Amino acid sequence: MEMALPNRQSGLGIRGVAHMKLTIAKKDVDKAILRGMTTSPTGTGEPGLLTHDNGDGTVTIEGYRGNAFVNQGLQAVLDSAYGDLVANRIDHIALSGDTTAVTAATTTIGTPNSIKVTANTARTNQTVASDQTWTQADVNFAIAKIGLLTGTAATDVANIIGGTGGSAPYNEPFTIDLTNIATWSLTMGVDVTATAS
Fold this sequence. Notes:
Layout: E1 12-25, E2 33-35, E3 50-53, E4 58-68, H1 71-81, E5 92-96, E6 113-117, E7 119-124, E8 127-135, E9 145-149, E10 157-162, E11 175-177, E12 185-196
Antiparallel strand pairs: 1-4, 1-12, 2-11, 3-4, 5-6, 5-9, 7-8, 8-12, 9-10
């Protein structure tokens, strides 16, 4: 008698969700172009933005957008899990104006870009959150991508969210265009969650 064994597979899923928190003067809200974000911290769900009146003449606008890691980012995670904790550490975050479609094989965040060391990095259970703050002095282009990097070069990408076109799970475009606003503060980051699947 043959006995059928259950088909059990184990897996690890890694997903990034970009989060945006923009503070601008109320009078400039109509000048901001914000597209492709959702109101849900999971980066899925209803399109839209959350707006908070700060009571001081400014508003804070929040939104989210999800996407998947690119191949070299997945490789960096595996390298780190097996002992190479320095060479492939995710330690930078970038904004880019490049609209090129993202695929699993993408190896650059593109140009123009602004790359900074990640700030406020913390892990809670299976999620690591990291972000950075940019102003008009740092970014003079319409933002079409955010990414996590393992170094200071545009080619050190681990995760890229944005771009135009492509196919799931990389087809999540967004636009943040603040080029017509004199003064602004934008905190953007990526929350990375590992899940058993």
